[in-house]
Amino acid sequence: MRLLLVEDNRDILANLADYLALKGYETDCAHDGLTGLHLAATNPYDLIVLDVMLPGMDGYTLCQRLREGERRDTPVIMLTARDALDDRLQGFGSGADDYVTKPFALPELAARIEAVLKRTRAGGRRLLRVGDLSYDLDTLEVTRAGQPLKIGPIGLKLLAVLMQKSPAVATRETLESALWGDAPPDSDSLRSHIHTLRQQIDKPFPKPLLHTVHGVGFRLAETEDAAK
Q1: Which of 152, 119, 145 is nearest to 46 (CA)?
Q2: pTM value > 0.70
Q3: Could you state, in order of their start, the residue ranges of all structural domains in the chain?
Q4: Which residues contact 213 (CB under 8 A, 6 or more apart)?
Q5: Cis previous bond, 167, omega within 30
């Protein structure tokens, strides 16, 4: 299980990461809202633990942007010292799945994480679809028109970002960050991986889904001008 922790208090963040690692979770961390949104929009997470009061972008805005702008349904647990009813309602209204008030006990948060994961997974598989292309994020199975496709780990990472962004454009910077973080290779490796992915998902079929937007990035959509 991979979690994203977004918390500006470094002591709290370190304690959370250490405790959840002992519980068997893999965690990524962000100290501000903008970094948190970038990570959440470009990586597949099973759950996000999100502080409300963050520099750059507050947790309410981040969660709303994640739901509406990025169209991501990753479960979100909000952390906050603000426990008024209106604050909790605002959290749920922005798309949060649960709300934990500070100070909290680490075992309680771990129990909330397990409960939310169990509840959301009971609702069905995490399935991405664009046209006749489907990607099951739980089994890593990709099919098009019912035919299974064999795609390697890098291709699967690219495909997840492209499908989650669809029909909008995924910029080169977004795709490079998803693959290599802040240290992309000097060579044009992204173009090579996109070419391979295009061969895998488009070449055997009459209608292309993966389109190049010159000077910007790439779009996965049923029609080339779907997001214009």
Answers
A1: 119
A2: no
A3: 2-122, 127-220
A4: 169, 219
A5: yes
